[in-house]
Amino acid sequence: MAHVELSLSEVFSPAADTPAEPESDNVGQWSSTVSHAAEPCLLIDADTTVVAISSSGCELLCLGAPEDVIGYPLLDGGLRLVDFTANKSELTEQETDKIPPLLALHSGRLARGLLRVQGPGEDGPGITVDAISTPVLTDGAVAGSLTFFSEV
């Protein structure tokens, strides 16, 4: 089984001779990192809109290219989550609220769980991914969530 460690630091401190930037750009700072990451990862804002996703994240989650999902709500951007039963029914709204990216967003705490992702038009078993999410804070309030994925 893959081992994933997640460690986040505070906002980068500007140099003493540089004017301080507002802390409210935390999501923007993570956006650039996620967009260029080799690992499958995703950044959503407080409205669940996809702010950034890595190319490998799009591939793993069967979402096409990053530009196809950035700017759209996470669950309206083609992400097809199914349950773990043999029937592979799509998750209900109540069940999707408990997926790690949304749980971290709503609870303000780390969240981890397994997801079963079904590609568009696929009849196969789908893939199972381990998702680890952390809230992204702005001025002490949750402004989004950052999620790393690993295929199980």
Count of DSSP-assigned helices = 5
CATH superfamily: PAS domain
How many domain units?
1
**CATH third-level topology:** Beta-Lactamase
Protein name: PAS domain-containing protein
Could you please describe the fold and organization of this structure?
It comes from Micromonospora globispora. This is PAS domain-containing protein. The chain has 152 residues and is α+β, with helices and mostly antiparallel strands. The chain has one domain (25-151): PAS domain (Beta-Lactamase, 2-Layer Sandwich), CATH 3.30.450. 21% of the residues lie in helices and 27% in strands. It contains 5 helices and 6 strands. It has helices at residues 26-35, 55-60, 66-69, 93-96, 100-107, and strands spanning 41-45, 50-53, 81-82, 111-117, 127-138, 141-151. It has a 6-stranded antiparallel sheet, sandwiched between helices. Mean pLDDT is 85; it is low at 11-23.
Quick take:
This protein is an alpha+beta fold and 152 residues long. The protein is built from 5 helices and 6 strands, in the order αββααβααβββ.
Q: Topology, please?
A:
Blueprint: H1 26-35, E1 41-45, E2 50-53, H2 55-60, H3 66-69, E3 81-82, H4 93-96, H5 100-107, E4 111-117, E5 127-138, E6 141-151
Antiparallel strand pairs: 1-2, 1-6, 3-4, 4-5, 5-6
Protein name: PAS domain-containing protein
